[in-house]
Amino acid sequence: MRRYLCKKTGHRKQDKSRRFMIPVAIVVATCILMTTGCMGNMGITQNVKKVNLSPTENRWGREGIFLGFQILWVYRISALLDLIVFNSIEFWSGENPITDQPALVNIPKETLEKIFGERNSVDMAQIKRINDTEAKMYLAFANGDKMTFDVVRSSDTYSVSYLGRQFYTGQINGTILSKGGV
């Protein structure tokens, strides 16, 4: 390492390239640690999508809002924040700070495949009304597995739960209020 003496103070000063190596190393190490949790619920991006869908029921109006969000980089910024910050927090802490839901990476693969599997994997879907506010939704999959969801309706909202854990809430007019993991 080359050191120089400052002409004014007489103190040693380090080579300029050495001075920049430490901040660069810190940034690289931070990026490596932060990008370990890219798989996640994408909470901010889901909230942006809700904002896009909520002002109007008209598909052309929604497309206009979508294009505006694309031009203003709203989707890009929200996805970047989700990927780098919030999904990393979800990965390391076990819960997404935006959605208050468990880490997606902690849900068993079999459960994820049942819920988010191929569209053609569902052989049968049946809804059985229990009373005015409750129903059961039965799904049968191509591989022989079966799932039963509980659906509870209030005056203008409904929620869907699986094995006692609520993972979807919506309004009767079709707006998604929250979406979660099983």
Give a quick precis of the structure.
With 182 residues, this protein is α+β, with helices and mostly antiparallel strands.
Polypeptide structure, described:
The protein is built from 5 helices and 8 strands. By secondary structure, it is α+β, with helices and mostly antiparallel strands. The protein has a domain at 107-182. A 6-stranded antiparallel sheet has the order 3-4-5-6-7-8, with no helix packed on it. It has a two-stranded antiparallel sheet with strand order 1-2. Helix 2 (43-53) packs antiparallel against helix 4. It is elongated and about 90 Å long. The model has no long low-confidence stretch (mean pLDDT 75).
The mean pLDDT is: 75
The low-confidence parts are none
How many alpha or pi helices?
5
Q: Kindly name the structural category.
A: alpha+beta
Strand order across the largest sheet? 3-4-5-6-7-8
Give the distance, in angstroms, between the N- and C-terminal Cα atoms.
Answer: 56 Å
The proportion of residues forming helix, as a percent range, comes to 25-40%
- Residue share in β-strands: 25-35%
C-alpha geometry: elongated
Radius of gyration: 25 Å
User: Major sheet: size, sense and barrel closure?
Assistant: 6 strands, antiparallel
Give me the strand/helix succession. EEHHHHHEEEEEE
Number of strands: 8
